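Name: PhoD-like phosphatase domain-containing protein
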Amino acid sequence: MFHSCNGFSVGTDEDFWSGPALWNDVLRTHKQKPFHVMIGGGDQIYNDSIRVKGPLKEWTDIQNPRKRAHFPFDNDLRRRCDDYYFQNYVEWYSTEPFAAANSQIPQINIWDDHDIIDGFGSYTDHFMRCAVFRGIGGVSFKYYCLFQHHTAPPLSTFTTDAPSTMSADANGTAGADPRQLKDTYVYKRTADDPSWIVGNKPGPYVEERSRNLYMRLGKRIAFCGIDARTERTRKQVNYPETYDLIFERLKKEFQAANGDIKHLILLLGVPIAYPRLAWLENILSSPIIAPIRLLNKRFGFAGGLFNQFDGSVDLLDDLDDHYTAKHHKDERRDLVVRLQKLSEEFSIRVTILGGDVHLAALGRFYSAPANNMDPLEDPRYMPNIVSSAITNKPPPKAVANLLARRNKIHHLKDGNTDETLLDMFNEQPGGKMKSSDSNYVTMPSRNYACITEIPDTPTPDSSGVGVTNGVNGTEAAVPSTGEEGKERPKPRSKGLDGHSPLHIGEEGAGTKHPAASGITSEGPLPGGLNVSIRVEIDNSDKTGQTQGYGLSIPKLTVKPKTAASHPPTHQPTVEEEA
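Structure predicted for PhoD-like phosphatase domain-containing protein:
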C-alpha cells in the first residue's frame, strides 16, 4: 500500500477529523490480504509544531528578518530540538492505529518537508541558508534515519558553536562534535545500506548526502524512491549528478534481472502528472502582492496569506514544491524523457507514485495521438498514482474543482508526449458529496492506495481451463468488468486523446472496476497491476470506512521499431508546450 501526509498541519482540529482513522481501514485490508509492504511517500510525521510550541517558537516570533536570519543555532538549541524531534516521533509512532500498522507491515519511506518543517527547501535561498534551518535539517535527518529507515544516524549534526559540524567532511556528513558524543554510542556503518543510492555531495541546506532507494518487491517488480528533499531548493528538486546515479543503478539492476522485471514503481515526493496552476504562481509572485505584503507587515492585514518565516505568500512554497512549477519544468521534462527511454530499452512499465497534495487523482503520460501507439506497447504510457493524505485534512471542494477545471491535455516539450488526468471518480464515496458533480478527476477526501500484481498467466479453474477475470480461455478479447452480464468495451481506437480511456484497464475505472476492492489479483491485463485508491467516506467515522476506486495498469511489451509503426511525430506549437 502507498500513503503520504500522515499527520496534521498546525491548527487542524484533530478530533473533528477523528485522528488517523484511515489506518483502521489499512489494518482491515491487511487482515483480508496481508500487505507485502507499505510505502511512505513523505510526511510520515508532521514536525511543524516545533515553531509554535517547540524550541523554535522564540526564533519564529522574531519580527526582524535580519535578526532571524542571523539567529545562532548553538548546542543548547540543538539539544532542545533533538529532544523535540525524538519526543514527537515517539508520541506519533505510538499513536493507534498507526502504531499497529507500523508493527505489522514492513515499510519503505522517503521524506518530505513536514518530516523536517513545513516548506523546508522551498523558501528563498538566502533564508534557507540561515543557521536555524541548517540546524533542524541535521537534527531531523538524524531521526529520519532512526525511525523511518532503522539505520544509524550521523555522529553529529550542525551547530554554530562547533565549526567542525558546519560543513560536511570527506564522508559527506557533518564533522564530529565531542559534546554531542558524550555518553553516547553511535554505530559506525562499515558500508552504506545496499538499498541506498547515495548522492555524491551534501544538500545545500543539510550537511548530508541524499538517500535514494532501490529494491525489489518480488520477482517482477522493482522499486525506486527519489529523495526529493535533501537536495531541494526553490529552483531544483535534485542535482543532475544524482539523477545520473539513479539511472546508472536502474540500468545495472535491469540488466542483471535478465528480463524478469516487468514493472518499476517510482516514488516521488510530489505528483509529476498534475494540473498546472501557473496563472496562480504568476499572481502570487507579481508586484501586485507588494502592497498587500506592506499592509500585512504594518497592520497584520491578510495575515493568513503570508508565512511566518520569510514573509512570502504562504501558498507559494507549496506551488514551488511541485514538478509542474515553472522553476522545475526543464528538470521535470528531462526526468520524464529519461524514464521513457529506460522503459523502452528494458520493456518495463513505469508507474509513478506521488503524494503531498491532499487529494486523490490518477495522472498519465502517453504518446501523442499522432504517434498511433497502442498503450499496451507504449513506453511513454506512465501512470502517476496520486494519493494524499492518509491523515491530514483535504483541501476545500473549491480547490479540487478548480484543479479539475484545469485538467487540460498538456503536451510535453519533446513533441511526442501528452498528459492528463483520468476520469476515475465515477461516484461520490458512500454518497457523501466531496466535490462537484462534474468533477471526476480529483477527490478531496483522505485516502491511500493499494497496488496488487496480476499474475502473468491465467488462473486455472477446477477443470484446468485457463480463466482470465472470469472469461474462459486465453483469447478473451473483451474481459469482464466483474459485473454479471456485462462486458468491457473494446480498447480505444488509435488516435483518441487522454480524456478517453487509453486502454482496457482504464475502461470502467472507478467503483465498479475489478481492482476497486484493493485485494484482488484478478484483472483484464495479465502481468499488469491492479490499483485501488481507497477514499474515506465520512471523517466523523473513527472506524475509517472507505470506498474503493480501481483501474489496471498493463505490463509493457515493446515491439521492434519500424518506419510504418513510427510515423512523424506531432510538433507542438509554443502555446501547447508544457
